[in-house]
Amino acid sequence: MKIREFTGEALGTFILVLFGCGSVAVAVLFGEYNSIFQIGFVWGIGVTLAIYLTRHLSNAHLNPAVTLAMVLSKRMKADKIPIYLLAQFSGAFLAGLCVFLLFFPSITAYESAHQIVRGSEESIITAKMFGEFYPNPGGTAVVPMILAIAAETFGTFLLVLTIFGLTEDANAGRPSSTMTPLFIGLTVSSIIWLIAPLTQAGLNPARDFGPRVVAWITGWRDAAFPDSHGGFFWVYILAPVAGGAIAALLEPVMKRITDH
Fold first, then answer.
1. Alpha-carbon distance 193 to 37, whole Å?
2. CB atoms within 10 A of CB 164
3. N or C: at which end does the chain have fewer Cβ atoms within 10 angstroms?
4. Alpha-carbon distance 131 to 108, whole Å?
5. Which residue in 92, 132, 129 sits closest to 107, CA to CA?
6. For residue range 196-216, what is the model confidence (pLDDT) as tens digits?
7. Is the dihedral of CA 226, 39, 42, 110 positive or negative?
8. Per residue in 17-30, pLDDT tens?
9. Which residues, in sequence order, are CB contacts of 223 under 8 Å at separation 6+?
10. Measured distance CA(51)–CA(57) in Å, rounded
């Protein structure tokens, strides 16, 4: 059982991060995606495919915030947390490494053409292919840390609340189980379109930390973790967990409303 669940979570997280980070890499290096709409849509497709591929193995959480919310809502036993989180972070790290190896020659050429020294402050523009940053590098939004935390908390809250609603048996309006992954993917895309201009829309601690570590060990160093105040932790690790937890705590209220 543990091997099956580990495989499902690792493979599913690998797929969604590979497609998602890959789309950001293509946008940065080749300019092939001209809008957040396109990148958000690719992320949604990645999530959808990952769920379809692995939900028979582990129910396809693919996100530590979702896993912890499932435990808080008593949909999953707490003793499964370590295996799920280890699988999710491992899958995300391997996906980040795959993106780096796949685009390594193009990254080097881009840095040379734009006179970017990897690891410098300017190299954040390429580091964003892996981890997220606030404000979104290249954007014009003014995003203090507190707003970034609020955006990531709110975005993950919406995601987890939607997942609960789409998988709740008492919800007469929910889609069939064959269509649920598609609606979850569209939810991810919609949230990205809303908050990515502010924070790149992490929504998933594994998706952020795994590829960010890849950037750190492959030369970006300080540029991968540029906030000396630990902003990446508060914004991209703690905030999504808090958003998922809030959704889990509100689920009983939503059930009572539905029952009436």
1. 6
2. 21
3. C
4. 18
5. 129
6. 999 999 999 999 999 999 999
7. negative
8. 999 999 999 999 99
9. 118, 119, 120, 121, 123, 124, 127, 215
10. 10
The encoded tokens of residue 59 equal 């129910």
Whole-model pTM? Answer: 0.94
Q: At what angle do helices 64-72 and 239-259 cross, to 10 degrees?
A: 40
Report in angstroms the alpha-carbon separations of 198 from 46, 104, 114, 194, 233: 22, 27, 25, 9, 16
Query: For residue 226, what are its two tokens?
Result: 């540029």
Amino acid at 193: W
Binning the chain into helix, strand and coil, the percentages to the nearest 5 are: 75, 0, 25
Q: Strand, coil or helix: what is 31? A: coil
